[in-house]
Amino acid sequence: MNHTNYKGRKALGKVGLFTFLTAMALMFICPMVFTVFSSFKDNTEIFGDPFSLPKTFRFSNYVEAWNGANMSTYFINSLVISIATVVILAVVSSMAAYALSRFNLKCGKALTIFFLAGMMIPIHTILVPVAYIIGKFNLKNNLVALVLIYVAFSLSFSIYVLARFMKGINRSLEEAAIIDGAGYFQIYTRIMLPLTVPAISTVSIFNFLGAWNNILFPLLFINDDKLKPIALGLLNFNGERGSAYGPLMAAIVITVFIPMVIYLLFQEKVESGLAAGAVKE
Amino acid sequence: MIYLKSRKDKFKIFLFIVPALVLYVLFQIVPMIGAFYFSVADWNGIAGTAIKMVGLKNYIAVFKDPGFLISLQNMGKMVFFSVLFHTPIALLLAVAINTKCRGYRFYKAVYFVPTVFPLTAVGLLWYFIFMPNGSFNTLLTNMGLSQFVTPWLINTSTAMNTIIFVNIWAGVGYYMVILIAGLTTIPDDIYEAAQIDGITTVKKFFLITVPMLKPIISMCIVMDIIGTVKVFDLIFVMTEGGPNGLTNLPTTLMYYEAFRYDHYGIGSAIGIIIFLIALVLTVGSEYLTSRTEN
Fold it and tell me: Do A92 and A44 share a domain, yes or no?
């Protein structure tokens, strides 16, 4: 008697569990699916029949967004900006992390804290001075400067994660290399970098998403339409052609496409890296 | 640690830090010092024009501005509701997913994926749903609830709440993933022992899961508070702080003051206030958590 009661409760629990999970999932899926559906519709259908499957799939909306609204240019700009940011950050921060985590530098501890302090700086606090620097040194529409700002802004976090990881690496390989007469730079490129790849890839995914998703710095730096990154380009498109909803929805889908692919490809990495990323927010 | 003896070696190692140090000082530390400087200065934003020192005038102006007080109030409201919903919902989702039931990977991906999207895209996506002739109002009409139809982002009594809802929607997955990671650290035998004692699922949740996760739950809440203070994109995209500045946060107000109205001093002062709020919250929560741990 008791046994069947327990079984019954368990089945009930299972139903409850799936009801909860599914109800919540609908809250997340519905808005996204609505956007994808709308991206294939024309205005009449979006407003007349918003929740149904598109009657015909208008891929022309995507063509319109991609070519007509320059999403292709923004997309490529963002790829270039984000990849450049990731590469420079990986090099610069891993070098600093190597020096800070593997040696007894006199000012090592102070420097580590100095770098860490950067995590406390909110982006909004430095916007005006950054705008001043842009004006003073004529850096408007300078993509290199934009990338360097991204790099500087993510340095604290990257160095923190990489240094913590490098601290845990066994020193026997390094010592053997020193005995063999290897220079520090060789040790860094041949031993430390390959061993740090897991941490570098975690940091890089975060830095890529950070650069891809940022709009504040591009708002200050870029007013040339040909140089805008995708998140800013999307806003632009929204402002200019506020009534062509189908292509706009297509542009949203294009904008989230790369972050979504990155997440689906590196699911475990993105999720496990969050514990480290958590520190930055 | 490798012990460097010669000065030359120390110098060589220091060179590894130089690129990072230069970029960091140039684009983080100098602007940070500059932020304090501009917050006590008057500047119209045009390069080459004189910058006048005005003392605390900007700060006084900021605190006398009803718009700023509204933005602080909005921030408080947003923090309150984020804390109220983010972590508790995320915890329920995490526990549900941690049962490893059929399809749990799918569910986890669905809840998490919005957190990797640019907030501009998330904001626009919801903007089209909540605009006056948007799909949410259509849905309400179709369900026979047309008395609730309203321009959600324009109506002064719903605009802020709508943004708060979207902010919760966009962030739940983030805390969920952190809590799932925390759940895996709770040893199974505690649950097994509880199972033998015949403890119900609800009791297990409140007597084992929540107490064991306490440090991670408080970390989530702290991150949530500090993260909410820095929300910008959603408001920038969905309402631009409107109607009448009623949905501004200090972050958006700072941006509009500085870069729309060229009030750089006022903008900087608000920027410093944001910094101080974040600093106080971080240090304060560190202090509180370290005290409860002792």
Answer: no
Calculate how close chain A gets to B294, using CA atoms only, in Å.
22
Q: Are residues A213 and A174 in the same domain?
A: yes
Pairwise CA distance, residues B42 & A272, whole Å: 46
Q: What ipTM does the predicted assembly reach? A: 0.89
- Whether A56 and A45 have beta carbons less than 8 Å apart is answered as no
User: Which residue in the set A31, A124, A212 is minimally distant from B271, CB to CB?
Assistant: A124
CB contact under 8 A, A28 and B232: no
* pLDDT reading at A52 higher than 80: yes
Q: Chain A contact for B149, CB < 8 A?
A: no
Range of the domain at A169: 71-277
Query: B233-262 burial by CB neighbour count: b if 16+ within 10 A, else e?
Result: bbbbbbbbbeeebbbbbbbbbbbbbbbeee
CB contact under 8 A, A212 and B118: yes
Out of A175, A216, A248, the one facing B232 most closely (by C-beta) is A216
* Domain assignment of residue A66, yes or no: no
Question: Which among B1, B101, B274 has the least Cβ separation from residue A125?
Answer: B274
| Angle subtended at Cα A105 by Cα A100 and Cα A111, rounded to the nearest 5 degrees | 55
B282 and A CB contact within 8 Å: yes
Q: Give the pLDDT confidence of A121-151 residue by residue, as tens digits.
A: 999 999 999 999 998 899 999 999 999 999 9
Structural domains in chain A (count)? 2
Q: Would an 8 Å CB–CB cutoff place B174 in contact with chain A?
A: yes
Question: Which uninterrupted H or E stretch holds B41?
Answer: strand B41-42
Residue of B14, B24, B95, B185 best to disrupt the A interface, most CBs of A under 10 A: B24
- Give this prediction's pTM: 0.91
Same-domain pairing of A31 and A77: no
Distances (CA, A) of A233 to A215, A223, A237, A248, A259: 10, 10, 6, 11, 16
Residue in A with minimal Cα distance to B119: A213
Q: Hey, is the C-beta of B24 within 8 angstroms of any chain A C-beta?
A: yes
DSSP A125: G
Mean pLDDT for all residues in chain A:
88
Per-domain residue ranges of chain B: 64-293
pLDDT tens-place string over residues A7-32:
677 777 788 889 999 999 999 999 99
Nearest to B113 among A120, A155, A260 (CB): A260
> CB of B179 within 8 Å of any CB in chain A?
no
Per residue in B93-117, pLDDT tens?
Answer: 999 998 888 889 999 999 999 999 9
Q: Are residues A53 and A185 in the same domain?
A: no
**Whose CA is closest to B168, among B78, B95, B107, B245?**
B78
Would you say residue A268 lies in a domain? yes
CATH of the structural domain B64-293, one choice from 3.30.450.70, 3.30.930.10, 1.10.3720.10, 1.20.120.450: 1.10.3720.10
